[in-house]
Amino acid sequence: MVINRMIARKSLLLALSRYVSLGFGFVSLYFITNYIPNTEADPIYGTVTLAISNIGLFAFLTDLGFGTTHIRKVSSGMDEGRCNGTYLTIKAVFLMTYVAIILTYIFGWEAVFIPVQNDICAAAGLDPFFSPFESDYFMKLLLIFLVWGILSNITTIATATMIAKQEVAKNTLMTVVGGLVQAIVTIVVVLMTDDIYIFAGTWVLGAAVTAGIGAFYILRYPIKLPTKEYLKDYALFAAPLAFAASMNPIQQNIDKVMIGSFQTNDQVGWYAVAQRFSNVPLLLIIPISTLFLPAQTQLAAKKNKKAFREFIYNTERYVTMMVLPMTVLVAAVALPFITILTDIQYTESAPILAILMLNIVLVALSKPYETMFISQGKPKYLLFMKLAFFPLNIILNLMLIPSPEQFFGLPVAGLGPTGAALATLLTFSISYVVKRILSYRLTPMGISFSIMRQLLAISIAAITLYLCNEMVWGIDRIYELVLYGVAGIAIYWAVLVLTKEFTWKEFNMIMDTLNVQKMWEYVKHEVRDRRH
Predict the structure, then answer these.
(1) Stated pTM of the model
(2) Could you tell me the pLDDT band of residue 2, with boundaries at 50, 70 and 90?
(3) 226/86 Cα distance (integer angstroms)
């Protein structure tokens, strides 16, 4: 079984929407890094990032695995209206809890924790760890980003419902328009002022536009009052997922919070810039793996293990085929990549970017097996892994980020943001091995020789680019960066063709997927379709 071409077309559209939105984001990032200060004396970008990360720590309170549950329940054929009503009810309760807990966190931290930790640190002869909370403007930033967090989580309601129905065109419209509005407003703001509150408000405006479009479509779906049976069914399925889902937003933000706690806010900015570039391939991996979940669920229900295995192998193969050039090639020329696309003040982001890009390779290889656990009704496997690897990541961050004088004289590395990136890479390396072992227990699958050929091809291309940059012709201009990228991709695909990893079958599938007329017909049909 090859991957269904309609799924491939929808996957491409979903990925394109993310990349168009990301393109808007990188245009605005260029202006941010060149016009908004991020020095140790005036770390505006780092401080805003730290505020976003503090609010992001609590994003798990708005989902707890119910988004994935909703996708599975709708795609499995349950009453759509009842599912939508159940999910909306659960999300409403979660959002109210989210707001209450964050407000308690903000004002409780200011009133209780800061005085206590100042006394403890003074007695130990240490500087306070969480000094940003002592400034009034940081507390106000947290309140601004609380509004952003509410709007962003309203958007996830629409996203989960659209993905469950595989209505990618609507999701695309929502993503692209919201990203465009935020980019335009951000560029105008950074050119006119460096007021930190107005700068923070650009995130709120972008989230408001996206949430508004999402709400427009949600109200056009069938919605029925939830029943006790549906609420119980959702809760039972989501329970094993809850811990795993809750750890994701914490893991995405805890590293920046810890950097801000043990180092300085400008270093948070360095890490944020590198992480933002490393999120480029993630915008391809996560939506596509989510879109494949309904198809995997249907195959698992039919108990056709051969077709299921082939689907997993093909998913892994095609996702990594797209992701490897975006990660390993960027890692090979990370320094010129950062200095050309941002500003000289972010050169420290280069080693961080290289490490995080290599980590994305592991994420890409892992995703098909994570969705396998859910599609085969074993979400508890994700729970077990999170229970093991979340504490490991925290421990590694504590060992690698602070320096000995900041951490009670203990033998820690003091690597700052680079240490945070290494902690992430080490955690995901061990996690990948465990996922493959657990997936083998469900459906025995060996190592893919296709992936090995791809890794060989990308290694040859990356080493060639690195040596050329270091010894032949250094990259100093954006057109040189583009030329190097094109050359690296050409080497990669040439090796794939020589090793027969890429054949006419894949070429014909790609050309059919890229067919503009078929894509337009699909988008036009779905966006205009009023029947639900």
Answers:
(1) 0.76
(2) very low
(3) 5
